[in-house]
Amino acid sequence: MTLGLESSISLPLCMCLNLKISLQIRSGFDYQIIPSWGFFFYTKNKKHAIYKKSIAFCVKQVIVFNRRCFMNTLLTELGVWSYFIIFFAKIIEVSMSTIRIMFVAKGERGKAAFIAFFEIFIWIIIISSVLTGLNEDPIRALVYCAAFAIGNYLGVFIESKLAIGLSSIQVITKEGVGHELANLLRDNNFGVTVIKGEGKETMREILLIHLKRKRIVEAVDLINSQLENAVVIVNEVKDVRGGYIKK
């Protein structure tokens, strides 16, 4: 990449990774550096010259910029262990992302922000290490992709085990059966409301149950133990006002 200093603008900080930059001045002087992160350079209005301090800074940083980043060098020295570091770190990062999305959907802003900080910190370290050494070691990309897929699966599994939040269950039964089932659920500390409904041919009873997500399996098992052909509908609940069920 060649940047010709033929204008009077002041160019911003260039953030580069192993990018060869040639600074050309009108006088014909050609100076080349290979930075790892970036450098400042300025031009004077009308005279189109580089400040001496900027040139001195570039010269001083040539050796430093020529080196690879610390993390990439460390992973290279670790050899095959670097794949395990990338693999497990990516799994942790993606799992955290899945849990964070769950908290965002449920309005838990504080918990979501806390997880997001560590999630993006791990992501920056891992992605920079993979991209920087991609040409020398493309296997890192395959390890990264595999970890991403497994991390999504593991994140969903962890989220289901945590089962944070509230849910509601609707049970549609024949008339006369709903009250017996409601009493059984109440004996197991479930709050139940029974509503009369009308089907196509007969009257129905609808049971409304609000509960914590952790108890969904328990409630469904009780329902199935009493009714084989009951219609059971499970819904997510974002918020509940009133009552005695707490998050």
In short:
With 247 residues, the protein is α+β, with helices and mostly antiparallel strands. It is 47% helix and 18% strand. The chain contains eight helices and seven strands.
Question: What report would you give on this structure?
Answer:
With 247 residues, this protein is of the alpha+beta class. Helix content is 47%, strand content 18%. The strands form two sheets. Strands 5-6-4-7 form a four-stranded antiparallel β-sheet, with helices on one face. Strands 1-2-3 form a three-stranded mixed β-sheet. The radius of gyration is 31 Å and the shape is elongated. Mean pLDDT is 72; it is low at 1-68.
Shape annotation:
elongated
Major β-sheet strand ordering = 5-6-4-7
* Total domain modules: 3
Major sheet details: 4 strands, antiparallel
Q: Write the H/E string, N to C.
A: EEEHHHHHHEHEEHE
Mean pLDDT: 72
Number of helices: 8
Determine the structural class based on helices, strands and strand pairing.
alpha+beta
Low-confidence stretches: 1-68
Keywords:
247 residues; Alpha-Beta Plaits; four-stranded antiparallel beta sheet; three-stranded mixed beta sheet; 7 strands; disordered N terminus
Write the layout of secondary structure elements.
Layout: E1 2-4, E2 21-24, E3 30-33, H1 52-60, H2 62-66, H3 70-78, H4 81-105, H5 109-132, H6 139-162, E4 166-174, H7 178-187, E5 191-198, E6 203-212, H8 216-226, E7 231-237
Parallel strand pairs: 1-2
Antiparallel strand pairs: 2-3, 4-6, 4-7, 5-6
